[in-house]
User: Fold these one by one.
Assistant:
Number 1:
Amino acid sequence: MVCLGNICRSPLAEGILQQLANNKNLNWQVASAGTGNWHIGQAPDSRSVTAANKKGHDISQQRAQQFKPTMFAYYDLIFAMDKNNFADLLSIATSKTEKSKIKMFLEIGDVTDPYYDDKLFSVVTAQIETRCEQIIKEFS
Ligand code: 4NP
């Protein structure tokens, strides 16, 4: 799960998908990263932690990391939260196999960056939760 800072959107997607997968006894390893490096080592944004808590998910122990090219080999699928993340990932990929692993997280459109708008966190969390439920059905 990849966004820009790895503190707002992708930690929600990691935490929610991992928990849903665990609940179904799926042996999935879910992780998240940012294309940017500003927040490496930081906990998720408190607004994401609160929004996740309201839905019964604890993402507070996650720590931000920057996307590394080695992740292309390690993970089967790389989900981009928005078009910019998608384009950045494509530009880092070095083979057709790597490029083919990159997907947009939503089937239509972007998960809007909520960083500058507090009101967006609940919207984004609901959107991510709905899509994670679909991903479980689609890939399990
Ligand atoms: P995220 O949100 O990509 O969902 O983690 C952002 C967090 C931080 C910044 C931008 C987006 N930033 O510019 O620091």
Number 2:
Amino acid sequence: MDENVRNPEMKRINTKELATSFIEEQVALLKKEIGNKKVLLALSGGVDSSVVAALLIKAIGKNLVCVHVNHGLLRKGESEQVIKVFKEELGANLIYVDAVDRFLDALEGVEDPETKRKIIGKIFIDVFAEEAKKLEGIEFLAQGTIYPDILESKGIKAHHNVGGLPKELNFKLVEPVKLLYKDEVRMVGETLGLPHNMVYRQPFPGPGLGVRCPGAITRERLEVVRESDAILREEFALAGLEGKVWQYFTVVPPFKSTGIKDNKRTYEYSVVLRAINSIDAVTASVEEIPYPLLFKIRDRILNEVKGVNRVLFDISPKPVATIEWE
Ligand code: XMP
């Protein structure tokens, strides 16, 4: 049987008991396959790579080497959470790479969305490959491939994410969740004890906040995106919408408009709120955020985020719009 095809008799992992047996089975298989060799994993903090990391830590402990690359386009608190959960709580062998300047310098002045994506993808691979070359004795590369990635190899992830590892990094692949659907990966992650907000988090694009800072990225505007996004996420969590709304984020377009504060005219950025529901990201509808919540988010952004004088709500469905702004 093709190892990339799910056995039709395999039960949907929808209880902790089923997840526990999956974990036990995989840990035994991974131990057998890997022995005392070393495995490398790019750990973004996303659901899939996090679950793979937790499984491998259980199976081979410090022989899993996780590399977390901070490209400067992550959300507020994201790198900190990866370090806290994996290094401090699970004792992972984690290498943190601060590549913020390298990414942001390379992106300076670049306006075209696809060129931005290519630069981010390429530097990511370069940074990861450089780290891999510094390490001795790595034989395997772990990846958070999941079943929909195999089924739709022309799907969203494959469509957006360019690149691949250079040929000289000739590792054997380890893909322990490649036959699982997303809800099953989440159940396994939760059973492994990963934090709820990590396991049930919304989709987040590889190029991160870079696509929410349309046009040429500036550090100033990126900070506005990051801070306003943190407020939106916090307020959605308080309102019980976390895990219920498919995807929500802020966008800060590359223009300023006039406002007034303390009797003085201002010339500052606008923050666009976006909250959508979808099943497969191919189509999306707009979440009807109640006005009191919208106003609360507006007030917090206008009061707490420097350089903003306007908050807008994007009511465009996909199609005609896309989910991200670029
Ligand atoms: P769009 O904007 O095309 O987005 O309607 C559909 C889904 O894909 C995510 N997205 C990306 N994911 N790399 C990714 O890994 C990307 O470059 C990228 N661009 C968009 C988007 O967040 C949405 O969930």
